[in-house]
Amino acid sequence: MLSLILSLSLTMPTMIFSPLPETPVITQGFGQNPNVYAAWGYAGHNGIDFGVDEGTVVYAPHDGVASVVDDGDSGYGLYLVISDTNRKSILGHLSEVTVTNGQKVYQGDPVCKSGNSGQTTGPHLHWTYKILKNGTVQNKENGYDGAVDVTEFTRLWQDQDLHHNATYTEFANEYLAMSFPDNVYLENPNRTA
Ligand SMILES: [Zn+2]
């Protein structure tokens, strides 16, 4: 486990950041609610949700180029994609995007504001994270179209005090109790709720 984390950090230019300041509360973990996400062909929730008020400033988790998409009342609603050759983030259900399509953004930049757009049950920020190699999404057959669990990174934030602590609501308990032997990203024996 440790060696994997170390090797990952070596292959990525910089540690990704939490997109939210202070203590983001995770209201839906990665892989939760498989019944709901089967409709999209996913094995479960393909990212993590943070329960934050509409209008909360969201920061770029990593460098990349911005793509702004507005899907109206469907899917992620107003959302922002930040991608480079190594990784891609999707920040969904926004109320406002404060960067422009094609703009180069940098890790830690305020880039958008959270909201309640698209298909939601309340205001929150959705974050999907994918690892790319030469611009191609890796591990696309993992049941999440290549999305990986960033919760592991949130633990790293805690360990290294690089950014912010993460806490979990009771809604994440199901997720926290899961083990994912087929995907080391999703294993975290040291995690505490
Ligand atoms: Zn979500």
Q: What are the secondary-structure elements, in order, as H or E? A: HEHEEEEEEEEEEEHEH
Quickly count the helices.
4
Q: Estimate the mean pLDDT confidence.
A: 77
Second CATH tier, the architecture: Distorted Sandwich
TL;DR?
The protein is of the alpha+beta class. It has four helices and 13 strands. 15% of the residues lie in helices and 28% in strands.
Report on the structure:
With 193 residues, the chain is an alpha+beta fold. It has a single domain (22-186), classed as Glucose Permease (Domain IIA). The protein has helices at 2-11, 34-37, 151-160, 173-176; strands at 25-28, 48-50, 57-59, 64-70, 78-83, 87-92, 94-97, 104-105, 110-114, 125-133, 136-137, 147-148, 167-168. Strands 1, 2, 4, 5, 6, 8, 10, 11, 12 and 13 form a ten-stranded mixed beta sheet that branches. The longest helix has 10 residues, at 2-11. The two termini are 20 Å apart. Bound molecules: zinc ion (ZN). The site of zinc ion has 5 residues, from loops.
